[in-house]
Amino acid sequence: QLPTGLYKKVLVILHDSVLPYMNEPTLMMDFLTVAYGIGGAISLLALNGLFILIHQHNLEYPDFYKKLYSLLDPSIYHVKYRARFFHLTDLFLSSSHLPAYLVAAFIKRLSRLALTAPPEALLMIIPFICNLFRRHPACRVLVHRPGGPADMSEDPYVMEQEEPSESRALESSLWEIQSLQNHYHPDVAKAAAVLNQSLSEIEDDISGLLELSAYELFDKEVKKKAVDVALEFEQVRGLFGKKNDIFAEHFSLD
Question: Where is the signal peptide (predicted)?
């Protein structure tokens, strides 16, 4: 048992400053699996080390995806380690051998949580979801279901279900992304509208979006060139500006 602060410091450097220099990195299996089960930021940070053990040292973790699915909560779009988490999640969901129900559950849960996410996170997660559709065509039924959300009296997806196979995600539709097409931020609405069209086969590069911040979004908006918009058809001629306004006979803007 380690203090939370020490756990985080160890896990942040473990994957690149410790494991590569160990003769037997598999000795860290128990430590990393226990850390992965703790939850919260500690679980997120344990993903790096687990990724190395799974891909390079044949670690078998039967409930790995179930635990990864459980890490998806509203805080995931706000945490300090968001970029690291989604980079690894993107790798874990890249295999074409994953069952459709599992990928659909991730897509649906990410979409539901996106309803309360900040714009900078949405501009990353929408292309992320589009990439999942490109890799797993069987999940496109969520977008192209006949009738869409209009034919559903209620959403069959069970958000509270911890087991992805029992979440009924494949029976649902992505009404959440359709809702984001009316988002107050124009860039988010534009990104969400992509799902109305047929997706290209080339995946979107999300590496530059993983660490997008609210400051960068604001700075981008501030630097946009202002467009002059005509607000008055008739030229202003008096206090209230109308051609036959009686005030124009007695008052002038000069």
Answer: none
